[in-house]
């Protein structure tokens, strides 16, 4: 039995932990061979692969990123993509694939299974927005990094009587903002799921200043003010197209400053949130996902994704897994509001 | 409405986060008064209390330990203890209690409820051994600290061709050993749930050395060798009664050294695992527990404990909560064995 | 004897450690009284002060920011400022001042000494650009935070074949860029002291990609391209005047992307660098500065600043201390070039 | 030109950073070849070596330990050791050696230079006890790790009204205890340089409890009570000979408990202090040491060691470098006493 492994989409702490667990269990328990396809779906499309043995995965558990590199290539947008993949798998003698990735990567995995290729998926999304699993690895690391930054910003804010707006990842789902805001003791948390009222934000900020503390506003990159969508979405871009860098965080710091007369600054955490060594939580989750993905392959149970339900790793249909975005429910957001201001 | 809060048992990162959430929601949403009872059940026994207002909990989210301090006092082992508590609550006008603690503290909470005092429990155990909740706060922090130590020890072990035995907390349940061992890439993990065979441990250690790596053996303080129970349990104590300090970790390092001829050292992580600022994960969990404990009090739903089930906070009967110890299931342990050696 | 303490300028990890050491030694060894003036020189100008006793400084060693808060108020720009200060000191019975701050704060300290007020200075600059001391506290913390961010970004860059530009603090001196770039294994380090040649930067970046690694470019916020000064300095500001947020880092990422055809992203670390708990190094240095500042006051040795020379804390004249900016010497920068590309 | 590199003695964070800097500068600037000798002086004794190219040092900057591994082999205690080394160097065409190590390693380096082998030394001692340099790499990392542990222990101590004794490294010099104790806000610091009076320690501990705080006592492993030397030195060993594990820390916790009636616990940090990724400070220092060692070799300036003096890297004679142990001066220790109790 020869199994191919690939990682697709944005990188995420824990990818290497999955790869290590897959290779270790596949070899030690089942005696399989492994090939690592490089750069996401580009690997099986072009045949770009490397052998993956025990030595290759010895030292990678704690490393961020992915030793297989990644891409956003979609074989269904490439002419004859599926046939090319089938040919490469046949040429390299690969019997099954383990695809580690987010919505896009798993969407391809689903279609390929329908088209006769045996694929098991491992969910990966730093944003925690995949519906079929309680959590994915990478999310805890991102929340930890954002929380540590918020911890640091509190004292700066207070020493200077400043409002600090911290823009975190989350284009469509506010999980990182919600969790890091709760963990960091934010005075306001803003998420894409609920358009915010700037007057309300300003009143929380002023209430916070009145208590002799300085407000920290945690805002997801995809959060938007009520009625203010167009303004931001059509905002000027710099030469490199970075709307987001001067995006909602900076815009909001400006609004707060002009409405309260207090100094306000924005910090955009950016890529720091998704790199580096995974937290212990993410290493354990990624490792368990890898071990269970091997079980699914061993069972010939393709078209599924491993998922966390409570403390168990289960299998869910890939069709179900990618059906809808998991956003922050209104009750979770409202629960947090007790800490605002 | 006036609500009392107390923390009992061993300290645990996240206790202050619970207290903050309780006070914040109780005051902001319900307009309650709060008193903090000091030193666990000793507080309501003796009337040792302090007011708890919003200002008292402003700065405590990130702090380890508990601002209410703790003790292991059991009012059911004190003459007339329950009556004293009832009198103190009556004198101080306290209508309900929120008790944050482990098995012992919650056991008292259950009995007090049966005896007519309204108590809501919040589970706390760094060892993750309470059956009625998926996780408790403090566990993630302990695992993170142990994992960071293991990360550091790898390079020392390899530079010196040494075996390193890391003794972590877990007298009856091996959760910290299992998770930190998985996250830290341990070569062997030993837990109280399964008596280990020293020959087997030695063969994993030797296999690891053969690969040109150095073994890290993570051992829970309560793990025991097959047939070796008495030996360890009746072992000499130092003047201060610290059997554990020279406990299983040191014993095992000695065995490995004498059987393999390789240098072996033990590191006993000890109290470092339970102190200091909680991880983001634990802060969120502790905060949510606190918010939901207030809901239970508001509902007059006493004799329950808040618990994590998947991603939800639910309520379980205190009787159920303390019914049995949650140990590492055999399949979780066997799953990890693929990484041994 | 009654001594006033104040903190001026931008906040910096270690300010509280100085305050603690000053108060502790002043009270324990000399039996002095202390008043803390709030908000930098604004405190002695307006009389805004608080008593500072042992209890006030018990818990502050590890906290970032300053319990005395800060400002950039300059009493020499206030009508009758010096007389107001003298009056406040007389009214409050303050015999001497310990002023903790950077170039501006210490410049005022110098003038006040000339005008007859007894002041001892403690140097503080996160940028490490004060000439009369080997290092100041806060710098090590800033370098550590920037280095940790760079560590995290390496794996993201490599997983995606991207160039990542990390903009760190340093408007006039490139010390943070130099040290964090060396510590983080940057492929290019750019400092304000030497205008950079974009073609040269691009060739280092391309060389790095050729080695199958991804380049990290660390750039001080004040670094500028050769001949490109005006362009950046007259660049568009957003509504809030944040030129820097879309400053040199973003500009450079854009240039690299358009010239190499590789994805390039900028990360602006911003205020995260100056907040939060100080490193052990900074806590020790700040503590020693505080202890020696008390010695200077006890000796009646005013108009001086404490400074680090090798492993010793010495005193230097304030006039000398603020004479010139300490920039990165050309040989230190050239030494680092061996790691470029 | 072909240069050999080796690392001797106990491992220390930063060794790999030195190796990387040496190889990078030697190749990029001078075009030299490098061989890495394995396991300290055992490498040139037996010819056990590996080539060291740019690729070998690409990824090692952040890694603790040493890719060349280490030993305590002393060729002057091996029959014909020096001749063997000369033969190996001749056989492998090695023109000069860079030896990274502590007192023992550098002592051999000195003798070999006297015996006609060109050696440049790089000082390494986690204990900071080498007289000829202000600091060595590894020390800052050890202090940071110990300080982080002390930070964590404060809240545990206070929650339980306990005294906690933290035993840190330092057999002959108390630098780690002094710096981590200052940085961690210890209530008592005990160093090998000054035998301590137990009554005095107990009175500091009691004073601390009276203030409603819990004492943290930081003790170097080599610290001893007045008149109590024999007792400890002849103390029972466990089967593995670990006197230290139940050493001064445990002994002192016992004394404190029995004399104050308060719970007291000991934590022995052990090997965790010397492993893992170096701090930014240590990476910069190690890197600069490596760069300057190459300069010395290029100048043919053998028999010297690179050293830190203030902010400069200088060269000192190896004879001078190993002349005497640098211990904590009495005035540095007394300065810290203001924080005791």
UniProtKB/TrEMBL annotation, chains A, B, C, D:
The entry's keywords: Cytoplasm, Glycolysis, Kinase, Magnesium, Metal-binding, Transferase
Active-site residues, Swiss-Prot/TrEMBL: 127 (proton acceptor)
PANTHER family from the UniProt entry: ATP-DEPENDENT 6-PHOSPHOFRUCTOKINASE 3, PHOSPHOFRUCTOKINASE
SUPFAM superfamilies in the record: Phosphofructokinase
EC code: 2.7.1.90
NCBIfam families: PFK_mixed (TIGR02483), PRK03202.1 (NF002872)
Binding site for substrate: 125-127, 162, 169-171, 221, 265, 271-274
Protein name: Pyrophosphate--fructose 6-phosphate 1-phosphotransferase
Catalysed reactions, semicolon-separated: beta-D-fructose 6-phosphate + diphosphate = beta-D-fructose 1,6-bisphosphate + phosphate + H(+)
Secreted recorded as keyword: no
Task of the protein: Catalyzes the phosphorylation of D-fructose 6-phosphate, the first committing step of glycolysis. Uses inorganic phosphate (PPi) as phosphoryl donor instead of ATP like common ATP-dependent phosphofructokinases (ATP-PFKs), which renders the reaction reversible, and can thus function both in glycolysis and gluconeogenesis. Consistently, PPi-PFK can replace the enzymes of both the forward (ATP-PFK) and reverse (fructose-bisphosphatase (FBPase)) reactions.
Enzyme class per UniProt: transferase
Major localisation: cytoplasm
Annotated site residues (Important for catalytic activity and substrate specificity) in this chain: 104
Keyword Cytoplasm annotated: yes
Location relative to the cell: Cytoplasm
Stored Gene3D superfamilies: 3.40.50.450, Phosphofructokinase domain (3.40.50.460)
Binding-site residues for diphosphate, renumbered to this chain: 10
Pfam families in the cross-refs: PFK (PF00365)
InterPro entries registered for this protein in UniProt: ATP_PFK (IPR022953), ATP_PFK_prok-type (IPR012003), Phosphofructokinase_CS (IPR015912), Phosphofructokinase_dom (IPR000023), Phosphofructokinase_III (IPR012829), PKF_sf (IPR035966)
UniProt pathway annotation: Carbohydrate degradation; glycolysis; D-glyceraldehyde 3-phosphate and glycerone phosphate from D-glucose: step 3/4
Domain of life of the native organism: Bacteria
Name of the gene encoding the protein in the UniProt record: pfp
Organism: Amycolatopsis melonis
Cofactor dependency: Mg(2+)
